[in-house]
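Self-study notes.
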Amino acid sequence: MRSILFVYLTLLLSMIDYGNVNADKKKVCIIGAGMSGLVSVKRLAEHSDEFEPIAFERNSDVGGFWIYTESTTVDEHGSPVHSSAYKNLRTNVPKELMAWPDYRNFSGDERSSVPHYLVLQYLRNYTAHFNLRRYIRFNVLVESVAPTRGPHRHWNETKWVLKTRDLSTREHDHTICNAIMVCNGHLTKEYVPVVPGVEKFQGKAIHSRLYRKPEDFANETVAILGASDSGLDIAVDLSSRARKIYLSSRHERLASKLPSNIEQVPGIIKVSGDEMIMSNGSSITADSILFCTGYAYDFPFLEDSCGIGVSRGHVFPLYKQMINAEHPSMAVIGLPTVASIYLLPRSTSWLYCEERCDCQRTTR
């Protein structure tokens, strides 16, 4: 993350007119104050003589994804809940690897994988240590972002107009800046595949983003679609309260031993009433369906003129998976998911599985 931000910072520095010692500082707007947003603000603040960072955060605190709430609908402002964290969530990488090189101080005595509230506390401590709150405007929602080019239409003459709304006062405002860093995360918009008949299912059918605690499924039979990180993790988390769990996947069966009330089944291709038909022709019945099918990239505030598109899980056109090729003064931070970086959450269930089921697991 730091090396990627260095590339972008170098690009922004090229915008500075060093021949004019009185040149105004470049104003850089950061959308989001989660992990990506905080490290972006910090890097810009290190060059405060050249940049003026301003971060906009829709929540009342830093942390983004790691702000756990039992609500699955709206927050205190009546806006859709942003976080998809759940009660027993823990990281699936050691905190020693998660901590940034310039701040290693994770609180608590726990080693290795830690619960979500310790990650949030780390982010709060990081913010306080580097005095970053002075750059962040909380409870402010970015509603739209659009570029305006100078008379010569050169990329470094582009200005950005952000229209915002204060969620506390409901007042609208706008900000003009020289560069944009998009740090809104990618674990909010649900990806739900088309399963014929599921719309007529009489039980509960939800995406894993709305999952909070196993008690909500006590004594139920639950069908989980998807056996990747979240699917397997939630299945084991549920096993302490659910009567039966069907873990459905289109891929090969997991070799690890699972709790006795979890049964691996083929992919579900359609739903008929409370019956689910699988790819091998067999069927199961369940009280609830959980779609652990991942997330889609989403930038609802970016106007078409920003030049950013999303298709089949790809954001384009980006240089080095970060810099907007149409407008190089915009960067999208933290997109790669298959990497040993911060956003790799998992709950206590993988620990439960290792300790009680002799699973052979590795972390990514």
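Second protein, same conventions, sequence then structure:
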Amino acid sequence: MKPQFHLPLITYPSASSFSLVQNAVDLARHNKADLTASILQIKMPLIRHSSPWIADAEKLSSEAKRFSRDNGMALNQTLHDYARKTEIKAVVQSFEASESFVAGTLAELSRAYDLSIMEASETMRPLIESVLFESGRPLILFPADNFCGRIDTVAVAWDGSATLSRALTGARLFLEFASKVILISITDDKPISEKARDQFADVLRNAGLEVEVATAQAHGAQAAGAIQSVAAANRADLLVAGAYGHSKLREFILGGVTRSLLVDLEMPVLLVH
């Protein structure tokens, strides 16, 4: 069955980058996948500056819709240009939503696909969290201005958790195409079962992959930084990690590694909740 990748594209209040579009196209090409982009057309933007004149509100709303439409047209054209050059199948579906419903709509749309592809930034964080925690599907995040090549080496932020097991299931496609896997454990962050890690390494070796085990210490800093440093030193093309969210009532109080990856991402990462 051919993989189906999903690319949510935002047009308001800022637009998704062209580099995200190119990365998504390249990721689909390297993994022989089809790509569907969901492009937002803003329906009713929030008017952040109150005005006693309804005409001013209507003018701001009209300008926001035009801004969203123009960005959508540019992203649509860019996607088709990149897809035509790489000869992948790319489909665009527009969706209309009020600003406050964009996050939920993207999460709902993402449930139909094998994974979604987004770009990490502080402004995108609410949308990223919604897709990550409410779609039930893997999410690949790219840092800004990152270039996606073939994924040959996969790094795994190993902690032995059930959440990581789900992430590894979501990453199966990339593991099948990879030639090497690096299992990374941070030894001073939480207890690590070396036996479980070594057992998983043996399973991957039996499947035909070259596997290395790497350990590091965070020394009181964020574990995500140490993990990414080790992954980069081993020339990993993709990091796989479980994603933790504990309390919706407190607006996704995230696990430390997840929170750090969303804020300070240095390499492409596949996350699954």
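Instructor comment on the second fold: The radius of gyration is 20 Å.
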